[in-house]
Amino acid sequence: MDVTAGVAPSAPAETTAGFLAFERETTVARVVLVRHEDGPEDDRVVAFFRAHGVLPQTIRPFLGERLDDVDASVVGSVIFGGKFNVFDDHKYPFLRHEKEWAEQCLKQNVPLLGICLGAQVMATVLGEGWTSSWRSGRVRLL
C-alpha cells in the first residue's frame, strides 16, 4: 500500500486522531481543502493536518480549479468560507460544483467540515435553510 503522495514521509499510517488512519489499498489518501481566497494557507486546519502528517490538497474553484468526483482516495474535506453568497449559483457557477462535491462527500460518508460559506453549502445540500441576523452577528440553521 502506497499512501506516501498524500502523507508526509515521516507520518505513521495511524495517528492519535483515529479518523486520520486512512490507509487504503492502491490509492493515495487525500484530504481536499476547498478555498475561496487566494491567501496563504497558514490557518489552524492546515496546521492540524500537517501536525498529523497529512499534506492536504487545496483546490480553489473560484479560480477555475476543478473539483473532480469524490473517489476512494478522498478521506476528508473542508469547505472554507468566503465572500460569496451560497444562493448566487447563477453568478458564480463554481458554487454548483461545490454543492455537488459536498453532496458526494455526504453520500459516501466522507468526513466534511464546512466553515462559514462551507457550512451554508452543506446546509443547502442537506435541504436545510438558514437565516442570518446582522445585528446579532449570528447565523441560524433552520
Description:
There is one protein chain. Helix 2 crosses helix 3. The strands form two sheets. A four-stranded parallel β-sheet has the order 2-1-3-4. It has helices at residues 44-51, 94-107, 117-125; strands at residues 30-34, 57-59, 74-79, 112-114, 130-133, 138-141. The radius of gyration is 16 Å and the shape is globular. Strand 5 and strand 6 (138-141) form a beta hairpin. Residues 1-18 and 22-26 have low confidence and may be disordered. The protein starts with 29 loop residues before the first strand and ends with a strand. It is of the alpha/beta class. It is built from three helices and six strands.
Instruction: Identify the quaternary structure here.
Output: single chain
Order of helices and strands: EHEEHEHEE
Category by helix and strand content: alpha/beta
Helix content: 10-25%
Instruction: Characterize the overall form.
Output: globular
Q: Whole-number radius of gyration?
A: 16 Å
Largest sheet: 4 strands, parallel
Number of helical segments with 4 or more residues:
3
Uncertain segments are 1-18, 22-26
Mean pLDDT, to the nearest integer, reads 79
Give the strand order, joined by hyphens, for the main sheet: 2-1-3-4
Distance between the termini: 44 Å
- Strand fraction equals 15-25%
Number of strands: 6
